[in-house]
Amino acid sequence: MNFTIDREILLENLNVIARGLPAKSPMPILTGIKLDVTDSDLYMTSSNTDISVETFVSDSSLQVLKPGKTVVPGRFFIDIIRKINSKKVSLTLVDERILLIKADRGEYKLHIMDPLDYPNIDFVTLENPLVLPAERIKTIIRQTCFATATSEKKPILTGVHLKLEGNKLTAVATDSFRLSQTILDVGEYSPFAITIPNKSLDELLKALDNYNENVTLYFSVNKLLVKFRNVLFQTRLLDGNYPDTSRLIPASYPIIIKFNKDELLDAVERVSLLSPRDKTSDRELAYSIIKLTVAKDHTVEISTTNASVGDANEELIPTDTQVAGPITIGFSSRYLIEALRSFESTEIALNCSEGIRPFVITGEKDHNLTQLILPVRMD
To answer: Which of 81, 145, 155, 300 lies in the 20 to 30 Å Cα band around 184?
Structure first.
């Protein structure tokens, strides 16, 4: 194997390939990137068993002197290409044992792995794909993925559930204490219901960075294949039945408090600086419980009490209220902050029911986005 290629083109594709590389793996071969060079093209593949990525490079700067296959140590290879400054990079396989990388006056030698040991990855493009703009997919991920569970106690909740029914695609994420739901009109398409791991969606979001054209999605029984540009991005799906969350969102609310989103967000962030936090070992868990109180005159106060540090409170002026009497709601400031950041609207509404019932956040412009948070008792 012997070829030269423009460094920027190679690095651009390696940045996408990096999405499929594991931090560590019981299969050492998967820590490598498979290079497959034909007479005129370059294929690069990475996989961590959950995510598999392949890029196809057919750039005019690619000059193949000798085709071949190899597997190179992934992280080291990417770091070398990222750090060198030359315009062109030459890669040569020496004695089927070493990959020689030449860049200007620099030479780097990497010990390779046997490509025959690399697992065969089947990227299946089935019929009837769903085509969506990349911006819509990125928006869905940003608006839902943060609300998935981080604990593996209920594995199905560590993913975002996508359900297409009646020409509407509904994306839902919940960790049992909050819920994020967004709905998208997609036109006619066969109904489906799948759950995609949150880590896969995080990596897909990074891979789609700076890409704003259409994306093609292929669905199979246990895999989702996303095709864009010269990239195939495939992820496994989560097994199990996702809980029915459709009944959690009330049809109407007796209490509605509207705020300027940025003013509310800034106030919550400031007050939460003094909110109590639990610690487990050296890792700080930001439960950050704060309280929102609506007085009889409809003034709103956000406050917190921390016995070891101090107290904080701020008064806010809502843009509109529909409140019968004074109320108090306690909740995680982190949950509210993350929910507010998912909205593009300048004005949002806190929609509440009586008692310790979940409250729902909606936005004036985000008609299809709903955020739900479970309050905590303040007794």
So the answer is: 155
β-strand partners of 240? none
CA 54 to the chain's CA centroid: 19
State the Cα–Cα distance between residues 142 and 178, nearest whole angstrom.
Answer: 15
Q: CB-based contacts of 237: which residues, under 8 Å, 6+ apart?
A: 159, 194, 195, 196, 197, 222, 223, 224
List, for residues 309-362, the tens digit of each pLDDT value.
Answer: 889 999 999 999 888 778 888 899 999 999 999 999 999 999 988 667 889 999
In the chain, CATH 3.10.150.10 sits at 2-117, 130-236, 255-373
List pLDDT tens digits, range 208-263. Answer: 999 999 999 999 889 999 999 999 999 999 999 999 998 888 888 888 999 999 99
Nearest-CA neighbor of 134 among 223, 198, 228?
A: 228
From CA 258, how far away is CA 251, in angstroms rounded?
18
The Cα 222–Cα 86 span in angstroms is: 43
Q: What angle do CA 273, 296, 271 make, to 5 degrees?
A: 5
**Tokens at 77, concatenated:** 């290879």
In this prediction, the residues of the chain whose per-residue pLDDT falls under 50 are 280-286
Contact 50, 239 (CB under 8 A): no
| Those residues with Cβ within 8 angstroms of residue 213's Cβ, 6 or more apart along the chain or in another chain | 133, 134, 228, 229
Protein fold of 2-117: DNA Polymerase III; Chain A, domain 2 (3.10.150)
If 0-12 CB within 10 Å is exposed, 13-18 middle and 19+ buried, where does residue 296 land?
A: exposed
Alpha helix locations (H) across 213-304?
A: 261-271
- Which CATH fold would you assign to the domain 130-236? DNA Polymerase III; Chain A, domain 2 (3.10.150)
Measured between alpha carbons, how far is 76 from 108 in angstroms, rounded to an integer?
10
Residue with the two structure tokens 């003013």? 263
Q: Where does 255-373 sit in CATH, by number?
A: 3.10.150.10
Give dist(CA 184, CA 172) in Å, integer. 12
Q: What is the pTM of this model?
A: 0.91
- Coil vs helix vs strand at 272: helix
Query: Is the distance from CB of 321 to CB of 298 less than 8 angstroms?
Result: yes
> Which burial class, exposed, middle or buried, applies to 342 when counting CB atoms under 10 A from its CB (0-12, 13-18, 19+)?
buried
* 267 SS3 class: helix
